[in-house]
Design brief:
mainly alpha
Length: 306
């Protein structure tokens, strides 16, 4: 039932937004994290009770996401997931005290428009168009280059961030890199949701571990944990999470529709709403600033003003 999928997507949005904000709050109290010391990153994270609560909220969002993929096509599901950026921006402002710019507030309006368009594109026949699995060769041909591109982009952003006299990054390159990793993870979640069944648990487990899905989840989960938490500690959650979510959405819709072979709506109006909603979500990424404005320096009390 499509509306059950919509409800599950909204629950996942609340859980994901809450989890990210709690993790960001916990990261501000931890020592500086470095991707060069992944074991140290994990040790610090697991030692923070607040971060653990945030990660449990994200895990619950993951469970809700499985329900969404069983009831909605990929394009519709991703359009609904991106709507969670509105709540994320509100929570980051209230809980974390992060001030949003005019362009960032405009992105909230754009996301609300995208949500309405995607929901309006849903029809009663969408449940029959949901694919359950993807050919392993096609899936890996899309996933492996994307993972490599994400890791190279993150490494490039790290090198640029170490340069002196550089404006503080707002987190856009980090968000794009992690978004590619989580886009592959989203395809793997989609595949797992299609294989899960209670009819034959033993047979389901064998079929699951013969597929590439759990191994992609393991790699993207471990790598994404270190990279995303390091980036989230350095940058504003109100920037890096929307960028990451938007890239994940666009990647999943584009590559997932190819890998799983899910058709778009045949009705011209519903097709326009589905594609238009995704395009509006993508505009959020283009509207966000690439750098944070550095705080103005206060004059030294020992130096008289000119």
């Amino acid at each position: 039932m499509p509306w059950w999928g919509v409800a599950s997507a909204l629950v996942a949005n609340v859980l994901y937004s809450t989890g990210f904000v709690l993790e960001k709050r916990a990261l501000s109290a931890l020592p500086a994290l470095s991707t060069r010391q992944p074991a140290r990153v994990v040790r610090h994270l697991l030692g923070s009770p607040l971060w653990t609560v945030g990660s449990l909220a994200l895990a619950a969002g993951f469970a809700a996401q499985l329900a969404v993929y069983r009831t909605l096509p990929i394009a519709a599901a991703q359009g609904l997931f991106v709507s969670g950026l509105v709540l994320l921006l509100l929570l980051s402002s209230v809980v974390l005290g992060e001030r949003t710019s005019g362009r960032e507030r405009g992105s909230i309006v754009a996301i609300l428009v995208a949500l309405v368009m995607v929901v309006a594109s849903l029809g009663g026949g969408d449940a029959q168009a949901i694919a359950r699995t993807a050919p392993p060769g096609t899936l890996l041909a899309l996933a492996v280059p994307s993972l490599a591109a994400g890791l190279l982009l993150y490494a490039s952003a790290e090198r640029r961030a170490r340069r002196r006299h550089r404006l503080p990054t707002a987190g856009v390159p980090y968000g794009v890199a992690v978004g590619l990793l989580y886009g592959v993870s989203s395809l793997a979640i989609k595949g797992v949701s299609g294989l899960l069944t209670t009819d034959d648990i033993a047979g389901t487990a064998v079929e699951l571990f013969r597929s590439p899905y759990p191994y992609l989840l393991l790699f993207t989960g471990a790598t994404g944990l270190v990279l995303s938490q390091t980036a989230l500690q350095r940058c504003r959650a109100s920037v890096i999470v929307p960028v990451c979510s938007t890239v994940t959405c666009v990647f999943t819709v584009a590559c997932g529709s190819v890998a799983f072979g899910e058709p778009l709506p045949a009705d011209p109006l519903r097709l326009a709403l589905r594609l238009g909603g995704t395009a509006v979500a993508l505009s959020v990424l283009l509207a966000l600033p690439r750098h944070d404005t550095p705080a103005p320096r206060l004059p030294s009390p020992n130096i008289p003003p000119p």
